[in-house]
Automatic annotation (TrEMBL):
The keyword Transport applies. GO terms for molecular function: ATP binding. It comes from Peteryoungia algae. Residues 5-229 form the ABC transporter domain. SMART domains: AAA. Keywords: ATP-binding, Nucleotide-binding, Plasmid, Transport. Belongs to the ABC transporter superfamily. InterPro entries: AAA+_ATPase, ABC_transporter-like_ATP-bd, ABC_transporter-like_CS, ABC_Transporter_VariousFunc, P-loop_NTPase. This is ABC transporter ATP-binding protein.
Amino acid sequence: MTPTLTISRLTKRFQSVEALKQVSLALQPGKRAALLGHNGAGKSTMMKIILGLIPFDSGEVQVCGQVPGSEAARMQVAYLPENVAFHPALTGEEQIRHYLSLRGDDPRIAPELLARVGLGHAARRRIGTYSKGMRQRVGLAQTLIGRPRLMVLDEPTSGLDPVSRRDFYDLLDGLSADGTTILLSSHALTEVEARTDSILILSGGQLVAEGSLADIRAQAVLPITLLVRPVEGHAASLAAALPEASLGIDGVLRITCAQTEKLPLLARITSRSAEVADLDVNPPSLEDIYSHFSRRDGQ
């Protein structure tokens, strides 16, 4: 299968600052990738290069098999910035009809696109009366024009309430199922943890981690936390049997261990099942992993 986006040994400098250093990655059709990184890590620079807005110094970039910024590439790419801007005097429907006309598509499908992003009820209201979240949804409707093969989204849930965020990711799920590749930059780590196929972590212009959440957990080699709730009256005996555990004021025993120690430790705990009321195994979260790679590189 031919990748929708291919980046090979990409380097970009701004005078003495090397914004991107030998970055390589490939995104397959229908995959959702989260691009993470601290401010100044190179995320915006990478997205601008993919969109053909700025040149790069060395390496190779192919967007849907085309040169970034070429007419053939632009026809297959959609972009949503963090802060969208539309004419406040136009209605949502008028704005989307305008973009459809520019694209050469049928303006009559504007209500359908707005309905897909939850704005059907406000399609004929002026954008000047919209909240920030509603304006963001107009931007989402715009990205749907032309059935793009690649969507580049920069903090797309900014300004959306929790229900709208859920609906937004449901929309992305449907698009990816239809073969659209999605590259999403976000600081909302708890959101992307469950709703993306792969994680890309940039730090200091370098791609320091790449893969599924399970893959980068393995790369980070961070400890696992086990929470053991004793049966009433058995806290002392269970704590004595698990000397590596610390007993919290909530009565829960907390044990931190390496991944390789997890199964032997679970066996020890379950062997005393009569004293255990409940057990939780908490692997490192995406926030833990992101912090690990950022701190490792001095951020």
